[in-house]
Amino acid sequence: MNLFTAVNDAMDIAMEQDDEVIVFGEDVKFGGVFRCCIGLNEKYGDERVFNTPLCEQGIIGFGIGAAAAGAKPVAEIQFADYIHPAFDQIVNEAAKYRYRSGNEFNSGGLTIRTPYGAVGHGGLYHSQSPEAYFCHSAGIKVVVPRSPAQAKGLLLSSIFAPDPVLFMEPKWLYRTAVEEVMEGDYRIPLDSAEVIREGTDVTVIGWGAQLQVLTKAADEAKANHGISCEIIDLRTLSPWDEDTVIESVEKTGRCVVSHEAPLQGGFGAEIASTIQEKCFYHLQAPIKRVCGYDTPFPLAFEKFYVPDHLKNYDAIVNVVEESC
């Protein structure tokens, strides 16, 4: 199963289990631009799977109201690059609704799905990774899967979570990531990172599609220099699993953090700062961040912009060579 069919399967299972689950967004009635919703309208009808106007603010506003009324809305924003018109609804309404009402009302049933990241030809308006904007807002979870099996389990957990969730799907992996995926309903806990490869020399941290890049970089570092990398997939960025990261860095004494989003203000800075505060006496070298550049996402120069496996390989080798 590839990633988009895993996402589709998760929504199908959720809708079959609970009549309160509804799916809506731009073109989702016809399957959506990436076909993640294919077949759902035919199976569940127009009342539960329907198109919306091209208005991101309205999509999320409707989702908040539906969640407050007891539904479990799954709202699709067609590209993460276009989530910004809905920013106020997400951070000032969905994230704060329970708090501002003293827990009398909440929008905890809301799940917002959106594809993010580089795809090879998206240019500046179809390639961005805006996760850090939302990690700054208490009250909403931010979840990013790395693979089809992870996407299915994390999306099911998100749909039935008691809190609003922003579920960001790496569109580069929709069709390229293929693996065995369990049948039926299963849930992967939110708020929990996963050590996907144990190691002794360097802790390497990422999320989403970047895990494929980091795994390749770690393989080359092992083959060429004998460096043993411990690779961590955060999976949930807000709230993120500090304990797993700290335990790993205390063991390895070195850390590389990588994401596609720009360096300045990227979520990697939060991770690096926390490691510096809590693991200072265990560090043998400065923490390295390997990220996108602080420019608009370039179409012609995408290969130079993205933090590919070679940039991460260099960072892994350098952090070991610079050790005290």
Could you explain the architecture of this structure?
The strands form 2 sheets. The chain has a 7-stranded mixed β-sheet, sandwiched between helices. 38% of the residues lie in helices and 18% in strands. It has 324 residues and is α/β, with parallel strands linked by helices. The protein has helices at 3-17, 40-44, 56-68, 87-94, 97-100, 131-135, 148-159, 173-176, 210-225, 242-252, 267-278, 302-305, 309-321; strands at 21-25, 49-51, 72-76, 111-116, 141-143, 165-170, 194-197, 202-206, 229-233, 236-238, 255-262, 288-292.
Concise summary:
It is built from 13 helices and twelve strands. With 324 residues, it is of the alpha/beta class. The protein has a seven-stranded mixed β-sheet with strand order 2-1-3-4-6-5-10, with helices on both faces.
Reconstruct the topology from this structure:
Layout: H1 3-17, E1 21-25, H2 40-44, E2 49-51, H3 56-68, E3 72-76, H4 87-94, H5 97-100, E4 111-116, H6 131-135, E5 141-143, H7 148-159, E6 165-170, H8 173-176, E7 194-197, E8 202-206, H9 210-225, E9 229-233, E10 236-238, H10 242-252, E11 255-262, H11 267-278, E12 288-292, H12 302-305, H13 309-321
